[in-house]
Design goal:
Length: 381
């Protein structure tokens, strides 16, 4: 099989004598492709490998559960592992929930009864670090796949203290959910980025476990930030955090904390950035936001992601939903004689685009011209 890059929206794969063209913009679906290109032969094909690596951790699949209340219930965690999830990202521990008293004086061990199904819809639910750390240690004791803790702090001291504690409680890696959004007109982008880097640097100095930074898309030069994070010894970035959207949300939406939507725009923006970053960065790349099915995972990996995190779809469909998603990916690879998911990585990134800025500009103009023609054709009398 050979795969060659055309453009982030179009991928051409050669499998045997078949030439497969994926139009990622039109959103080709894997199941359709399987029907269209499966050769129908009864030949037994080897089972493709979904194994991959992220933050230096060996994973059995590239599908991760993103930080969410799913990890508050340890029975969900077992089901996620059984469904084939590669690693678990725990919900975030917030510094505001840190008690004044010594942490160890806190909280009985967490039980499933403490967090009945859908308990994430309860407002003002808080958690002590003691509880979080015990949950982390317990999850580590019941599953074999890597567990990535997640922190969201306000002060450098909080970041450092809690990072040390999650590392001591057995986290395989740590995701820093850094909530930094400039809202004050006097704050420069340089100041915001300095804060972000300083946080990364301090946590890097404090712990040895692999670190990923969950970035937001509101940075003025994302490539430069990624480059600088690499220099301070961060191991990976997660694209992108989605902050709670306060604007148009109704009260009910806020209570449900439904930050996500299946809109294609969520995914498209993240795929673009993966395609831009992956040709040159050595950091592990994870995508979060808009991953709802097997096609999304494959597109993310083609654009350069090492792993794809899924949250809303697992919350809505339940932890077992990971199993059919992974089965579809494996079936698709098998039908195309692709032995490993890793063969798909980067085939649709910008590595072979000679002048990315000019190419992106040209395609932007083409897209506008095509839309204008479509509009005229549809509305002409
Ligand atoms: C109910 C809910 C709770 C979440 N909790 C966290 C959290 O604790 N920490 C965090 O970094 N992200 C959290 N997120 C964000 C998700 O990890 C993810 O980045 C986001 O939902 C986009 O992915 P999706 O489109 O697959 O939902 C949460 C999302 C949802 C829907």
């Amino acid at each position: 099989m050979s795969i060659r890059h055309c453009h982030v929206d179009n991928v051409v794969c050669r499998v045997g004598n078949s030439r497969l063209v994926f139009n990622l913009v039109k959103g080709d679906h894997l199941d359709k492709k399987i029907t269209a290109y499966g050769n129908g032969s009864s030949e037994v094909k080897p089972v493709p490998s979904l194994c991959t690596e992220y933050l230096g951790l060996a994973l059995k699949s590239p599908l991760l559960v993103g930080a969410s209340p799913l990890t508050r219930d340890t029975s969900f965690v077992r089901r996620l592992e059984n469904a084939g999830i590669g690693a678990i990202v725990m919900h975030s521990l917030f510094e505001e929930d840190m008690p004044r008293e010594p942490i160890d004086a806190f909280a009985p061990p967490v039980t499933n009864e403490d967090f009945p199904e859908h308990s994430w819809t309860r407002p003002n639910q808080q958690e002590h670090p003691g509880t979080y750390l015990e949950t982390l240690a317990y999850i580590k004791s019941i599953i074999a796949i890597p567990v990535i803790a997640s922190l969201n702090c306000r002060t450098l001291e909080g970041w450092v203290q809690l990072a040390r504690r999650v590392a001591d409680h057995g986290a395989d890696a740590l995701e820093l959910n850094i909530f930094l959004m400039a809202m004050n007109p006097e704050q420069t982008s340089a100041e915001t980025e300095r804060q972000l880097l300083e946080t990364a640097r301090r946590v890097r100095d404090a712990v040895k476990i692999p670190l990923a930074i969950k970035l937001n898309p509101y940075l003025s030069s994302l490539p430069n930030m990624v480059y600088q994070l690499e220099r301070v010894g961060i191991n990976g970035v997660v694209l992108f955090n989605r902050f709670f959207q306060l604007g148009p949300a109704t009260t009910i939406e806020r209570e449900m904390f439904r930050t996500s939507s299946p809109h294609r725009a969520d995914l498209a923006m993240r795929l673009d950035w993966l395609a831009v970053l992956s040709p040159w960065t050595k950091l592990s790349l994870a995508i979060t936001g808009g991953i709802h099915g097997s096609t999304d995972v494959v597109r993310a990996i083609m654009a350069g992601a090492d792993v794809a995190q899924m949250t809303t779809s697992l919350l809505e469909n339940g932890p077992d939903y990971a199993q059919p998603v992974l089965a579809e990916i494996a079936m698709w690879l098998q039908n195309h004689n692709i032995g490993s998911i890793n063969e798909l990585r980067d085939v649709a990134n910008m590595a072979t685009v000679a002048e990315p800025q000019n190419t992106v500009r040209r395609e932007y103009r083409n897209a506008i011209a095509a839309a204008a023609m479509r509009f005229t054709a549809e509305h002409r009398y």
